[in-house]
Amino acid sequence: MSSHRPRARDLGIKIGRVKPGRYNAITDVAGVRVGHTTLIEGAGKLVPGVGPIRTGVTAILPHGGDLFLDKVTGTVLRINGFGEVTNSEQIHEMGFIEGPIMLTNTWNVPRVADAVIDWSIARNEAMGVDTWGISPVVAETSDMLLNDIRGRHVTREHVFHAIDTAAGGAVLEGAVGGGTGMTCYDFKGGIGTASRKLPDKLGGYTVGVLVQANFGWRPQLLIDGVPVGRELQRYKPLRRKSENPPEIKTTLDSGSVIVVVATDAPCSYRQLNRLAVRAQNGLARTGSHTGNTSGDFVIAFSTTRRKKHFADALTYHVEQIVEQGDLINHLFWSVVEATEEAVLNALFKADTMIGRDDRVVAGLPLEETVDLMRRYGHGHVHLP
To answer: How far apart are CA 376 and CA 41, in angstroms?
Structure first.
């Protein structure tokens, strides 16, 4: 679960040139809230459909009002399509998102989507009677390396809890929520987040990113340009002599990632697509090459570009950023930098986990990482 382990900035690793927001989290975008349900049960040999369980669900709410009646402009970008984001075609067609954004594992998607429908119709008597109903947005990565994925252990109550407990402020990171059983660069991965705050002269807009990181091959891992993964290629956590964990083999194609980008800049659907494309650059700066069987998607939305479900006129006026000069480039930089740092935070915050069949996935070793950063010229990096 999210632990006492430090985030990247706690060690002096400061990514990029744009300053982070107060919490360095997606919740720095006003109104955005995040909630998790984390499921960790059982140990030992896998009993398909029973356990051990290392999974969960995460909810991202774009604002605190009625998300169906007051929709946000949004988009879904496919980097590599070995995966799914539900109802992405409707988002492409209409240009808005009308409910919470949910992250979970691959086989939990239908159950999470069904629960989101239950949660939504309980709060809106018009759905399915006088108007259409919510089209749930659920994204996934696979946690079958550590979790009994066949058990599909996320229930309706777990989904409700993640949505209903979603809050602003600091966000739990690491092995929590949808990221509970995830692996990143052959280390323990999961949920990570970061943000960037533009200068007041550029509108003071905020860009926040949250990732569910479950991708990468260890030799690829870069931390602020340092080839940490290559240097730690043979690293294994210390174990008692009596313990003999099984060998875990990964491939160049293994894993997936979901990137959620939020901003209070008034961006159109097309402009959000331009921002979403830049998330791929942030992933690449951590070492990702986007493998053949990688499900890599970006979900982006603007909290200030809204659309009412029931229109009260034939036209409406909207504000939109100007795509020239420093403003658009700072937004691009912010997406790149926050995506890179969110992945690093997912790595730094996740502890070693023992999952199904006593498989061990090591947390990123902090002392060794700090030593490597300093050896490669980052003398300011240190353990807190």
So the answer is: 40
Q: How far apart are CA 131 and CA 119, in angstroms?
A: 17
- 381 close to 11: Cβ distance less than 8 angstroms: yes
DSSP conformational letter for 131: B
Q: Which domains does the chain have, with CATH numbers?
A: 8-236+251-375 (3.60.70.12)
Tokens of 243: 């313990």
Answer yes or no: 288 catalytic. no
What does the pLDDT average to over 248-262? 77
pLDDT of the residue at 292: 87
φ and ψ at residue 305, rounded to 5 degrees = -100, 95
The Cα 371–Cα 42 span in angstroms is 35
| pLDDT tens per residue across span 76-93 | 999 999 999 999 999 999
Asked if 304 and 319 count as a contact pair (C-beta separation under 8 A), the reply is: yes
Give the containing element (helix H, strand E) for 22.
Answer: none
Nearest to 265 by CA among 181, 332, 205: 205
Give the SS3 label for residue 196.
strand
User: Tell me: the pLDDT tens digits for 163-195?
Assistant: 999 999 999 999 999 999 999 999 999 999 999
| 294 is annotated as an active-site residue | yes
Catalytic annotation present for 120: no
Nearest CA to 213 out of 247, 175, 261 is that of 175
Q: What is the mean pLDDT of residues 285-305?
A: 94
Q: Of these residues, 28, 143, 148, 296, which one is catalytic?
A: 296
Catalytic residue, candidates 135, 294, 302, 334: 294
**Residue 293 pLDDT grade (very low, low, confident, very high; cuts 50, 70, 90):** confident
pLDDT, residue 137, reads 98
- Contact, 321 vs 275, CB < 8 A? no
| Predicted TM-score (pTM) above 0.90 | yes
- The better pLDDT of the pair 5, 292 is held by 5
Active-site residue, from 256, 288, 302, 334: 256
**Residues 31, 200: Cα–Cα separation, whole Å:** 19
Q: Express each pLDDT in 264-286 by its tens digit.
A: 999 999 999 999 999 999 999 99
